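User:
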Amino acid sequence: LMKILSIHDLATIRKRAEHKLSLREESNEKVTEKCCGLASGTQHLQILICGGTGCKASSSQGITEHLRTAIEKNGIADKVEVITVGCFGFCEKGPIVKIIPDNTFYTQVTPEDAEDIITEHIIGGRKIARLLYIDPKTEQTVSDSKHMDFYRKQLRIALRNCGFIDPENIEEYIAREGYFALADCLLNKRPMDVIDIIKQSGLRGRGGGGFPTGLKWEFAHKQKSDVKYVVCNADEGDPGAFMDRSIMEGDPHSIVEAMCVCGYSIGSSKGLVYIRAEYPLAINRLKTAIGQARQYGLLGDHILGTDFCFDIEIRYGAGAFVCGEETALIHSMEGKRGEPTLKPPFPAESGYLGKPTNVNNVETLANIPIILTKGADWFAAIGTERSKGTKVFALAGKINNVGLIEVPMGTTLREVIYEIGGGIKGGKRFKAVQTGGPSGGCLTEKHLDEPLDFDSVKKFDAIVGSGGMVVMDTNTCMVEVARFFMSFTQRESCGKCVPCREGTKRMLEILERIVAGEGRMEDLDQLEELATMIRSMALCGLGKSAPLPVLSTLKTFREEYEEHIRDHKCRAKVCQAMRRFIINPDYCKGCGKCAKNCPAGAITGAIKHPHQIDNNLCIKCGACKDNCNFDAIYVEM
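Assistant: Predicted structure:
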């Protein structure tokens, strides 16, 4: 491939590649209810298959192989194209297969369905009813994703190309105006012009801090140095979060382009992507994108014939949660222990190898090219007054529609959980949602109509954070939730500062004592005192936010803490130490099976006579209940 030397060459490639996406573009504009199979006269069809980590784990690669085999067998390889794309977002219903141009959206597809998709739909022109999504409200099949509640209220900006283009084909990205923002910046704008556009857009960092992105770039731009660095923070460590991973898997070129634009704006020629090593698919697709950009002359020396030179390297993290904090991340890249340092100096002043460094996370960077293409005013018109644009959330937990969503800032929690998320699994009652990961807080029923943006949720000791959202129902013990997240943050503490290292450990000890039924009422006051101390004195943002899950659950679910301490009762029947296994003598046949399976020897009784459990010896494992054939054993809390 020849290197691109001008904007004309870039436009030529876009024109050449546009036909590949034209069917997909048309299907987005006009929904075709009628099945567009070869029998109906359709000249060319495309089959899009989700190639995200979740669907690949559910055999989407096998679906691709079976489809191609069936296409070859039926002699239609010249009329049907199978394309692997990024995450569609509706992970609950994966693997997903989408037929273009009729926009048919097949869910929970297996490799065994491939033959029917080719013979029935592609050749015969008949939609396969069993693979269509069933609307839980109407119990009717829905063939097009635009008619699904999951997608209806979404606005995909950062996720604009995920599920639409082949992430390993640079020309498909270019056909979607990819790299034109970079070209416009290099050929028509000065660095401060670019920074001013980002400032005017109101884009704030999507990694958790919410700092104005344009202002961050301006700080780095103003530093006088012969060497500067652009760093992409892809160290996504929150439990239940997969926003950044999905963007890198589905649209890696947007990250490459955004890093180039940032490099031009701040005066840097070197980009570094810090990504956790347990993201192999994201790493491979990012490597492919970087290699293709170099081949096409969009990375390297004299990009688009200008004096601007920029290249990107990938650096791997070992999975330390604290390395999501920018100064700890920089130390890790330098080969040092991943510990944060006190700011100032900020990385924009002294970062990687002591040079000015700009750090943005993946989602923040994914917004950059489209802001420059569509304009600051376009982006600023979306969202709220102080939180512009959209936010990507990873919906997980006890919710019907687990998946990846993107909504305008200011969308209410009710809309996210009940309209997009489809409500709580099993028709159970919503209890709380943990936002912002282990450093976030809980929002409850009384917060359902509150807008989700950077500032609104802070009033309730919660944060939007990077976008993890774990939904809980009434079978969730909030004390155990607090203990779980505190266990995570304590384990992941780098140990550098005493408030975080020792404070989180003491908080965890108290919480473990409470869930074990050994808590004291004064423990609650001590938890609040420790939490306040850590928030005010911890060295980094992660340490300061570590107590938030405890503070928010104490504030909203204090009665559950008191029940654990006063009544030795867990209303959700989750805390194992408070469980009592009891044998109902009316149902017990005296078979002895429970006693044989009890590892603690806590069950006694004669054969053919009711048995008894000594709860002083019982270790609460539940083996007796699992092995009882007569439902004679029940749990009392």
